[in-house]
Amino acid sequence: MRHLLDTQTLSREEALRILDVAEDMADTQRREVKKLPTLRGKTVVNLFFEDSTRTRISFEAAAKRLSADVINFSAKGSSVSKGESLQDTAQTLQAMGADAVVIRHGASGAPRTLATSGWISAGVVNAGDGTHEHPTQALLDAFTIRKRRFGDHSRGRDLADVKVTIVGDVLHSRVARSNVWLLTRLGAKVTLVSPPTLVPQDMSNWPVDVVYDLDEAIAAGPDALMMLRIQLERMNAAYFPTEREYSRRWGLDARRLQALGADSIVMHPGPMNRGLEISAEAADSPRSTVLEQVANGVSVRMAALYLLLAGAERTPAENPSAAG
Ligand code: CP
């Protein structure tokens, strides 16, 4: 794998490969000594032009557990504030020896530009670009759903017959987009629930059903209910109901939590707006996989960096000499 830029162009086989390597990585994380020597001598740069807690820290943890050196770059406090371009910033970091660049940027398409411009030779991982995609979030979500469904027998399995309902601000959500492409490619049936003003105008090529009534969607019996963050910072000209109205019609409250099937899980990519799209009761309930998703994110990002940088056809499990 040369880059990881989106899930729209990721094949079913590539996606399953990442999920299966992530299973191996998760196995290594249960050991007393978590660190693998696999990426010793490699340098991973975390290039973040937007704020992040989970993604940045889990990429850092993933790289360090594979013994890579990590350089963290945050646009705040850097020469970006003096007008330095993406090209000059990236080339500066490459000159310091970057083998992989993990980039989060407010502009949709920035990671692809970095990967295809010829400015740098490092592998590029999209850690979220504008409203476009957030592929590793979708991969860790798919990993979490698969793990909950198949447990220790997850390897090689897709998500055929799994019903996933994604609720909220689809218009601004890169998480929703990446999940739509990935989950449907893995065979899941995906339904979107949103206020009519918060869905994209043209969804003709989206392989999903769209409904506007959350109670109706819950009555259909989803296996996973994924609540999206309301992105007030990206709302611009989009019409948003009042927070009270949004919460009443599209929020996951105690009543709706009770209406879910016995084995349904509640997901959220974080950060959560408690009391808006999800109640504290739902966020902290035994059905919630929020923290499981965070933990799985480290394994999935280890897998992505491993496949990008180790250039190995075999996984650590298949290649014990690399497993330290
Ligand atoms: N889910 C997610 O991308 O969270 P962060 O913004 O904290 O990285």
List keywords for this structure.
single chain; 324 residues; alpha/beta; Rossmann fold; 2 domains; 5-stranded parallel β-sheet; 11 helices; globular; binds phosphoric acid mono(formamide)ester; transferase; Asp/Orn_carbamoyltranf_P-bd; Asp_carbamoyltransf; Aspartate carbamoyltransferase; EC 2.1.3.2
Can you give me a brief rundown of this structure?
The chain has 324 residues and is of the alpha/beta class.
Layout of helices and strands:
Elements: H1 12-29, E1 43-48, H2 54-65, E2 69-74, H3 86-95, E3 100-105, H4 110-116, E4 123-129, H5 135-150, E5 163-167, H6 174-185, E6 189-193, E7 209-211, H7 214-219, E8 224-227, H8 243-250, H9 254-259, E9 265-267, H10 280-283, H11 290-309
Parallel strand pairs: 1-2, 1-3, 3-4, 5-6, 5-8, 6-7, 8-9
Helix pairs in contact: 1-5, 1-11, 2-11, 5-6, 5-11
Pathway: Pyrimidine metabolism; UMP biosynthesis via de novo pathway; (S)-dihydroorotate from bicarbonate: step 2/3
InterPro entries: Asp/Orn_carbamoyltranf_P-bd (IPR006132), Asp/Orn_carbamoylTrfase (IPR006130), Asp/Orn_carbamoylTrfase_sf (IPR036901), Asp_carbamoyltransf (IPR002082), Asp_carbamoyltransf_Asp/Orn-bd (IPR006131)
Enzyme class: transferase
